[in-house]
Amino acid sequence: MSTNFDAVVSAPDTLPAPRRGLELRRTPVVVVGGLPTVSLIPRELKAAARGRSVRRLLVVGVVAAAVVAAGATAGATALAGASQAQLDAANSRTQTLSRQLAKFRDVQALQQSIAVGQAAVKVGSSTEIDWQAQIDAIEAEMPAGYSVTSIQADSASAVQAYPQGSTPLEMPRAASLQLSLTTSDITTLPPWLRKLRSVPAYADATASVLSDQDSGYTVQLTIHLSPKALINGKQTTK
User: Membrane-spanning regions, if any (predicted)?
Assistant: First the structure.
């Protein structure tokens, strides 16, 4: 039996031409699940790998913290150095001023001594009175026929004030003069007491009279002087 291979193998000489205007489309094939895989790495190795990762992260964190701490330390050191420099400069200025003041220490001591002396003079002269001027002012108003037999003066001191009158209407007192006088005509005493009021330092006056047939009359006259009698008081009232 013979077979005609030419008839079986041969293909038709012409193929049908594709149609124009048509496009060939392929439908996508979706594979669900993929190929199954199996890990052959032991769990101990996986845990070790994770531990190494954690250690690397810890090392990185420690290094970063060390860098930050080093920067903070450097900044604090710089600030401390600047503060120390300012303190040293201030101490240097203080020492310079102290040396300059030491040069004038003798002058300062002299000035203090002068100030103390002036204060002492002021205190000592605060109760000083020109007694002769006060006596002259009193004798200028004295009538004729009077003779002064004794004069006593009393005034305050630097530590004790002069006693004042017992009534608030009396003028302030700074000193007093006690005069003992003799006269043959006592009638001129009241006018003289009134004239004494014109004395600038007059505060008040009292008189007591004793009679004697042989020498006439003896007058004990006490004149209180106001603060105007003080030398410093005169300078203040000018």
Answer: 57-82
